[in-house]
Design a protein that fits this description.
- It is built from 14 helices and 20 strands.
- The chain has helices spanning 20-23, 27-33, 50-59, 63-66, 95-101, 135-142, 145-155, 166-182, 193-201, 206-229, 254-260, 297-311, 324-329, 402-413, and strands spanning 6-12, 37-43, 106-109, 121-123, 186-191, 235-240, 246-247, 250-252, 264-267, 270-274, 276-280, 284-289, 318-323, 338-342, 346-348, 356-358, 369-370, 382-388, 394-396, 400-401.
Length: 430
């Protein structure tokens, strides 16, 4: 196999199969897709949220096997739980680890779960959850300090916390600088402009169209920088999405029902104890049991009776209940008691002040668009495209999974990820 000297992986958060027709009308995306390999039927992970998805791409494994089963930790006593942002949460090796073992220079900007990973050129995706933290300090604690200070000195004026499109303006400027100054052998870049706007405005809003156009300009700038700094005949560029989104009109608060039934206890608006608790993934939700209830069959049957009654109601958002074994088969956390899938037009949130709410009434969370749903159906798939060294152009019509992408990238680069769940997409490799 003809191995590339450089691999550039650009992850476009929440950009899906449904966007491809529009992207192909834009100048830089249109030129890229011409003579590229394109998989347009890519299923995300379950739950289809960002951190499990990106870790599956890094490892070639399902979430249950790489260990990142959610974006955030289960911390019911915290209003804002900590994000699973550090490399130590990933079980086994990653593409970045194996590339570094081969002496390759690795960069990762805003890529999830690379905090404290010893990647020399990194701006980890880190969310501030403590009042004493600020964004620059949180990033410095989780990535290379000198490199990040240099980026902030040069481009910090572009950012505004995690607000978009300012965040992607900062990351894009940092990426172009990193390509031109350090010319990494493996570059992982994650842009979230579209995801943010879909959450706030809905899946098909004009603000999303504007964000897609910004992505087109960013792609053009990245390709230009790569062409300036290396041989494009020995470079592979990969574009991919991690999940898609669905429009949402209603919110179901499972923890409100659990509190009403006595499964969790609230005093003066604060959680004081729980036997069972829901952990939202937006379009789905884990439900966990307290340790002392895991062998209590009578308790579990009573809880299931409540959930089944909710599932049968038109005025609540549960479409399906997966038991722990079924959740594990789908790749989700086998430690959950059950997993709940939301109905079309519904999502879950964790608060317990009310039973249901219209999206327009929810002030704390932007959920007009949501993900986390079971990754099935063409209208909820994403895509994977590659072009350059070692890639055979053409359309791949069969379904692939995110963990297949990890297996394929490893095969392209000659990296050994060990025992994985993914299969190499052989038809796109020369």
């Amino acid at each position: 196999m003809n191995r590339p000297q450089r691999v550039m992986i650009l992850s476009l958060d929440a950009v899906g199969r449904e966007d491809l027709a529009f992207l192909q009308t834009l100048p830089h995306f249109g030129a890229f897709f011409n003579r590229a390999a394109l998989c347009s039927h890519v299923c995300s992970v379950y739950p289809s949220i960002t951190y499990p998805a990106h870790t599956s791409i890094l490892t070639g494994k399902m979430p249950k096997n790489h260990g990142v089963i959610h974006n955030t930790k289960l911390q019911p006593d915290r209003e804002r739980p900590d994000w699973i942002c550090q490399r130590r949460f990933i079980k086994g090796t990653t593409i970045c680890d194996e590339a570094r073992k081969q002496g390759k220079k690795v960069a990762a900007l805003l890529w999830p779960v690379v905090g404290r990973s010893k990647i020399p050129y990194a701006v980890p995706e880190v969310m501030v959850t403590r009042r004493w933290q600020n964004q620059i300090l949180a990033n410095a604690m989780n990535g290379p300090v000198r490199y990040q200070l240099d980026l902030n000195r040069r481009f910090g004026h572009l950012r505004d916390g995690v607000r978009q499109p300012a965040l992607d303006h900062f990351i894009q400027a940092s990426a172009l600088y990193t390509i031109r100054k350090y010319n990494p052998d493996l570059f992982l870049l994650h842009l979230t402009d579209v995801d943010t706007n879909r959450h706030i405005y809905g899946v098909h809003h004009e603000k999303v169209t504007e964000a897609l156009r910004r992505h087109d300009r960013r792609l053009g700038e990245i390709l230009e920088a790569l062409a300036e700094t290396g041989d494009m005949e020995k470079t592979t560029v990969i574009l991919l999405g991690d999940h898609y989104q669905k429009d949402v009109q209603k919110i179901a608060y499972v923890n409100y029902v659990l509190a009403q039934e006595g499964f969790l206890r609230i005093q003066k608006g604060r959680l004081t104890g729980w036997d069972a608790i829901a952990k939202t993934c937006d379009g789905s939700a884990y439900l966990y049991l307290n340790q002392r209830r895991r062998q209590d069959r009578a308790f579990q049957e009573r809880l299931l009776d409540v959930l089944r009654e909710l599932e049968g109601r038109e005025d609540f958002g549960i479409a399906h209940i997966w038991d722990s074994a079924q959740a594990a088969l789908l790749g989700a956390d086998p430690a959950c008691f059950v997993m709940l899938e939301a109905k079309p037009g519904w999502c879950f949130l964790d608060e317990w002040e009310c039973r249901t709410k219209e999206v327009r009434e929810e002030k704390r969370h932007a959920v007009r668009g949501a993900h986390g749903y079971l990754p099935e159906g063409e209208d909820y798939q994403t895509f994977f495209a590659a072009k350059g060294c070692g890639i055979r152009p053409g359309q791949v019509q069969r379904p692939v999974r995110l963990w297949d992408e990890g297996a394929t990238i490893a095969a392209l680069m000659g990296l050994d990820l060990g025992e994985i769940d993914g299969s190499v997409i052989q038809e796109i490799l020369l």
